Amino acid sequence: MAHPTRPGMTVPLPGPLHSHQAKLAELADLGYSDIWSAESDGADAFTPLALAAAWEPRLRLGTAIVPAYTRSPALFAQSVASLADAAPGRFAIGIGSSSNVIVERWNGIPFEQPYKKVRDVVRFLNDALDGEKVSKAYDTFEVSGFRLGVRPEQRPQILVAALREGMLRLAGRESDGVIINWLAPHDVPTVTKVVTDAAGGDEREVVCRIFCCPSENSEVVRAAAKFAIAAYLNVPVYAAFHEWLGRGDQLRGMWDAWQAGDRKAALAEIPDQVVDDLIVHGSPAACRAKIQEYFDNGVTTSSLAILPLDPDLNHWQAVRDLSPSAG
What are the pLDDT digits (tens) for 39-61? Predict the structure, then answer.
């Protein structure tokens, strides 16, 4: 069965969390169906969604993503079950490996065996949400005698953030869907085929974080976007991802200059075409058309992330300009 198209927005929105009630209502009024939180160095992933659970029942809530490492297994299960209990049938937990910077440098946790860690957390959550006592040795941790005391009315969906084939197959084989990011619309079929094949041909939800800046000031947007692209695509897992997607020749100059320690030259080596592939920018109408290309190529759920690449960009006007009701 085909998944319905779900237009979503990344949260938290600008401003303090206590000020977001009216903004969340406007998101729903504008036709957004989902909000997706992340967890790095800002708000935790669950608090913005807990507020939304109480304030705006029209929105589905998801995490994109919670790192597999930064909560102990029992606490992870408690957090997931609590939010599922607060928002029955409209919460999805997205889990990923995150990065060595977030896990190891910021949280002091060894960033080891990321594939196995994500897989084990997915398996443990499935076991815990069954309501039975869990006493099991997983490859990366062991749980002895834990029983989840919160029983949500509806089991939350579990999604896996993935880049390359191993994690994509895990998403298709053992979860309800996949979370993807930093790719062009024409890259989506390459990714989704691996997921669908691993799922035995069954369709899975495909959530995509899409980076957007609805501005026609192309020179300014491209120059600022190159900083973001360099920051991400020099991380080894993202470099390998884009090599796999076939973007290696376009990015080789950037990678070589970065490795040589010449950051300025690395930025200059990023082709405008790569920026245009990975960042949605231009007029609002052009942006909406490109966002639609992601859906046409297999994305089922968007999580728009509005980037302030143009200093004159008004974030909330961008939210309105990119909304389903704007078309």
Answer: 999 999 999 999 999 999 999 99
Q: What is the pTM of this model?
A: 0.97
Q: What is the DSSP string of 256-269?
A: HHHHTT-HHHHHHT
170-183 pLDDT tens trace: 999 999 999 999 99
CA dihedral sign, ordered 24, 7, 214, 246: positive
DSSP at 102: I
What is the rounded distance in angstroms from the CA atom of residue 297 to the CA atom of residue 293? 6
Q: How far apart are the first and last CA of the chain?
A: 27
How do 157-161 and 91-96 pair as beta strands? Answer: parallel
Domain ranges in the chain are: 8-212+283-326, 217-281
Instruction: Share the mean pLDDT of the chain.
Output: 97
The span from the CA of 312 to the CA of 319, in Å, is 14
Strand pairing of 134-137 and 142-146? antiparallel
Please answer whether residues 142 and 149 qualify as being in contact, where contact means their C-beta atoms are separated by less than 8 angstroms. Answer: no
152 within 8 A of 87, measured Cβ to Cβ? no
CATH code linked to domain 8-212+283-326: 3.20.20.30
Query: Taking a C-beta distance cutoff of 8 angstroms, is the pair 177, 206 a contact?
Result: yes
Whose tokens are 């895990």? That residue is 170
H or E, element range at 194 = helix 188-198
Distance from C-alpha of 162 to C-alpha of 180, rounded to nearest angstrom: 6
Q: What is the pLDDT of residue 327?
A: 73
